[in-house]
Design a protein that fits this description.
Number of strands: 14
CATH class of the largest domain: Alpha Beta
CATH architecture of the largest domain: 3-Layer(aba) Sandwich
Number of domains: 3
CATH superfamily of the largest domain: P-loop containing nucleotide triphosphate hydrolases
Order of helices and strands: EEEEEHEEHEHEHEHEHEEHEHHHH
Shape: globular
Strand order of the largest sheet: 6-5-4-1-7
Helix content: 25-40%
Radius of gyration: 23 Å
Structural class: alpha/beta
CATH topology of the largest domain: Rossmann fold
Largest sheet: 5 strands, antiparallel
């Protein structure tokens, strides 16, 4: 079960924390800037892992949590959260179809890792590509995952620059901290009737591949990110991101709290899709979800991927899967 801590005197980012109770993640540690305790600050500060500065262990005490009320609990019922999340993912499906149909130019999809942002988009791309292959025409969409260089991004945009073509950048957050990549992305997302993208530097690679140093981009772009744009600290990057958001649709999946992520996992499990590859009955599936809920502050991450990892252990070690999960899936405290 989750432990709780009452901080008598402390601070977080120059804000006083006095007589406040939090779910405990890690007890007192001494860092380069002094002592701190790690807690789940979702309810008060909107972040699920924060370090509250304290002078010594005497500045806090362990409590049973009877007096703890999660502020996020009073805003929405579980059913309302699940409905909100389901609606957001339904919008994601509809918007993806609109980009593939050429009715919408571009979309940014933001949300934490491991909640299924990419899955629905990837499925729709596969259907569209299969349809193209059946017609004997060129595939018009591609999902690019991982780090993307500026030159690689330019080539991808050129490859899918025709009308009704779509390029998806998934987990390519490095683009957002590279000025050249950002300018290319802004060019692709521009709201003008004509979107011209140029590569001003000399490139043997482009010449060898027959790619011009300037072209009109008529395709669509979907950018999938784990980052919360509003939380970026660098003003320079935020200015770029504001310019990007003004050019396209921005869908935040609103999975900001630990509770949201848990209910998303529960939602997918209830459809039978999450554990479809396992011969689990309803009770066994519920055991996994309950285990994740009880250990939420100790697991390395709260995600669909983590649920699958634990399901693998539940199938492989039916008599000791929880002990195995504590050893392999949890943070060292």
């Amino acid at each position: 079960m989750t432990g709780y801590v009452k901080i008598k005197q402390g601070s977080y980012r120059n804000k006083e924390v006095i007589n406040k109770t939090f779910p405990l993640i890690k007890q007192y540690q001494l860092g380069s800037n002094g002592g701190f305790i790690t807690v789940d600050g979702t309810g008060m500060f909107g972040k699920d892992k924060i370090r509250v500065s304290v002078s010594s262990p005497q500045d806090y005490e362990l409590v049973d949590g009877d007096d703890y009320t999660d502020p996020t609990q009073s805003k929405e019922t579980d059913e309302q959260i699940i409905e909100r999340i389901a609606e957001r993912f339904s919008v994601l499906d509809d918007m993806t179809k609109a980009v593939l149909d050429g009715n919408i130019r571009a979309m940014i999809v933001a949300g934490p890792p491991g909640v299924g942002k990419s899955y629905g988009i990837e499925q729709q791309l596969e259907k569209a590509n299969l349809f193209d292959q059946m017609k004997g025409t060129r595939v018009k969409s591609e999902m690019i995952k991982g780090t993307a260089s500026a030159l690689g991004m330019y080539k991808a945009l050129y490859k899918y620059s025709d009308e009704n073509s779509v390029v998806v950048f998934d987990d390519c957050d490095s683009i957002l901290v590279d000025d050249v990549c950002l300018n290319l992305l802004k060019g692709a997302l521009d709201s003008g009737r004509k979107r011209t993208i140029s590569w001003l530097a000399d490139s043997h690679s482009l010449r060898n591949e027959g790619i011009p140093d300037s072209f009109d981009f008529k395709g669509g772009v979907i950018f999938i990110t784990n980052l919360k744009f509003d939380a970026m600290k660098s003003q320079k990057i935020r200015d770029h991101l504001d310019a990007i958001q003004s050019r396209c649709h921005h869908l935040d999946l609103t999975l900001d709290t630990m509770r949201d992520k848990l209910l998303r996992i529960q939602q997918i499990a209830s459809t039978g899709e999450l554990f479809s590859n396992y011969d689990f009955n309803g009770h066994q599936q519920a055991e996994i979800i309950d285990f994740m809920r009880d250990q939420k502050n100790k697991l390395r991450e709260m995600s669909l991927r983590m649920a699958i990892k634990i399901a693998d252990l539940r199938r492989s070690f039916p008599d000791k899967w929880q002990a195995m999960a504590r050893t392999t899936c949890m943070k060292r405290v």
